[in-house]
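Hey, weird one. I pasted the Flavodoxin reductases (Ferredoxin-NADPH reductases) family 1 sequence into the form twice and got a warning about non-standard characters only the second time. First submission, copied straight from the form history:
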Amino acid sequence: MSSDVRVRVAAARQVAERVRELVLAPANGTPLPGWTPGAHVDLVLAPDLVRSYSLCSAPGADTWRIAVLEESAGRGGSRHVHHTLAVGDELVTSAPRNNFELVLGARPVLLVSGGIGVTPILPMAAAAEKAGADWRLLHLARSEAAAAYVDELTAYGDRVVRHVDTDGGPLDLAATLDRLGGAESDVYACGPAPLLAALEDYAAARPGTRLVLERFTGSGDAVREGDHAFVVEIADGTEIPVAADQTMLEALTEAGIRVLSSCQEGVCGTCETVVLEGEPDHRDHVLGDDERASGEMVMPCVSRCRGARIVLDL
């Protein structure tokens, strides 16, 4: 992992049902790298267990804070955080990366969090408040027990609107967003896929909305009907065939070529790889339009090749 950062678990606590918070301090006395609201780090939990987590502390603090929802059907990362990591343990992380950066300007800002999606939203609220921006936050949770960081959000008074599904049933999302000025705001949202899909529908019907999303899961179409086989070549000339029903990451892993990855759904950016030749078929949710058009980078966990061969800097 490039730009390794060594950290120590300085504190741990439960902040909501199935949500464990870790405070990470420098392990070697070197100050932690700076970051901006919306950033995440890749945490190396074990040699083959790397996961991306949003930073939810205040930028500029001398420690980092992450909060992790335990997923019983996950791939082991959250269980490791909840049941294996202990105060005093040392870990390696990447330097912070930001695919969900808050840009404050003249327009109002509406922050929307669903469940554990509150983690990248917390530092955005702090930054917007510090800047004196015109901002609001809609904080959604299934139940009071599942709602994380309510105490911190309460400090912002009526800038924060909360809704709990167990109190009054499902929210009329469109009406609530309209009431909060969403039709003319920059809307930053993080949460489960159904919430983000509903926000996309909302923004599509309101041209004045600028929508910026942070996804926890991809679209699930890394492999599609009609995909073709192709070859991945790495820098030393080795060629690895990729079947029509296989991802590049799967083929590379089977060939013994290690590519650092986390989400395996094209949402975190951990596996971003330089393209030396060939045209990527981008299927991630990380790269911007200009980055896609350049063809210089690819996320091998979900993206493919438009032609017969692609050469990666591995």
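That's the output from the first submission. The warning seems to come from a hidden character in my clipboard, not from the data itself. Residues 230-312 form a domain with the Ubiquitin-like (UB roll) fold (CATH 3.10.20.30).
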